[in-house]
Amino acid sequence: MSGPDVLVDIAGLVKSFGRFPALRGLDLQVTRGEVHGFLGPNGAGKSTTIRVLLGLLRADAGTVTLLGKDPWADVVELHRRLAYVPGDVSLWPGMTGGEAIDLLGALRGGIDERRRAELVERFELDPTKRGRQYSKGNRQKVAIVAALASDVELLILDEPTSGLDPLMEKVFQEVVREATARGTTVLLSSHILAELESLADRLSIIRDGRVVQSGTLADLRGQTHTTIHATLGRTPDRETLAFFHDVHLDGDRFSATVESTRIGEAMTLLAPTGLTSLTVEPPSLESLFLRLYGDDTPAEATR
Ligand code: ADP
Ligand code: MG
Predict the structure, then answer these.
(1) Which listed site, 78, 170, 212, 300, has its alpha carbon 20 to 30 Å from 109?
(2) Which segments constitute the ABC transporter domain (predicted)?
C-alpha cells in the first residue's frame, strides 16, 4: 500500500555511523489512524529510524516519505504537522515547564488550551518549576503534554514513558487512545512488548537495523505454537500424532504443541480418543518475544 493513507513510508533505509551499519535496508509503513508499535531491543535502530524521520539524520540510501513529504527537505512544514517525544527529554534549564509546553506548542502551530490544562492535571505536573528542577520523569511529562495538547496529524513517540511510574504509564495509555480517537496517527517505539501490547494496532519488530516482522499482535501470535496437555482414553493413531509437534506420551498423559491457528483441528483429532482432561496454553508473550528477538536478547528486554 502507498498513497495518502500511508503517513510513514520507508523502503530500504540504510544509515551507517562511520563503518557501523545501524540501519541495513529497513522497511516501515505506518497507515493513517493506527498506533504502530515499533518494537526492538536496545541498539536495534529505532531511534536512528526516528531521527531520519525527524530530519535530524540524513539517510545514506533508501526512500523515506513522511506525510507525503521528504523529511530532510521539508523539515519546517513537517514539524508543524507532527509532534515528537524522545525517551530522554532535555528542557531549557531556566524556562518553566509551562513555558516550554507553550513554546513547543507554538512551533507546532498552536495548542488546545483546554486539553493542555487537562493533561497537566492528569499527569500531576507542576508547570511552574524550571527545567533544571525537573526529574527525568517530569521532563518527560512536559514533552508528552506539549505533544498531546498540539493538534498534529502524527505523533512520533520514542520510548516516551521510560521515566514514568506505572500509574502515569496508565494515564499515558489513556491519552494516546484519546488522541487516536481524534484521528491522530501514532508511531510508538519501545523495547518492552508489554508497553505496546494494549495500544498497538500493528507492530513492526526491528532487529539489527531491519524490520523482521510486521503485523497485528494476533498475526504474530498466530505464528507461534500453543501447548496442549491432555489425558486420553486411548492412544491416538500415528496419523493423529503426526499432526502435532513436540509430542510426549506417558501412559494416558499426552502433551504436544500445535500452530495457534490450528487448535480447532487439534481438538477434532483428539476428541475421538476419549479425553478426560484438557488444558490449552496459548503462546505466552514471553515466548513470542523471545522467538522474535532471538536468544541473544538482554534479560532486561523481557522484563
Ligand atoms: P535503539 O533506539 O533501537 O536502541 P539506536 O537507533 O539508538 O537503537 O542505535 C542503533 C545502533 O546505532 C546502535 O548500535 C548504536 O550504538 C548506534 N548509533 C546510534 N547513534 C549513533 C551515533 N550518533 N554514532 C555512532 N553510533 C550510533
Ligand atoms: Mg532508542
Answers:
(1) 170
(2) 8-233
User: What is the CATH topology of the domain spanning 6-221?
Assistant: Rossmann fold (3.40.50)
Average pLDDT score over residue span 81-98: 95
Domain ranges of the chain: 6-221, 225-282
CATH number for the domain running over 225-282: 3.30.70
Tell which atom from ligand 1 comes closest to the C-alpha of 40.
3
Q: Could you tell me if the CB of 46 is within 6 A of ligand 1?
A: yes
Q: What is the pLDDT of residues 241-269, one digit of tens each?
A: 999 999 999 999 999 999 888 889 999 99
- Alpha carbon nearest to ligand 1 atom 7, residue: 47
Probe residue for ligand 1, chosen from 42, 48, 52 as the CB with the greatest number of ligand atoms within 8 Å: 48
**pTM for the whole structure:** 0.82
Distances (CA, A) of 242 to 106, 153, 236, 251, 257: 64, 51, 10, 18, 11
- Cα–Cα distance measured from residue 101 to residue 86, given in angstroms and rounded to the nearest whole number: 15
Characterise 204 by phi-psi region: left (phi > 0), alpha (psi -120 to 50), beta (else): beta
What separation in Å is there between the alpha carbon of 225 and the centre of ligand 2?
Answer: 30
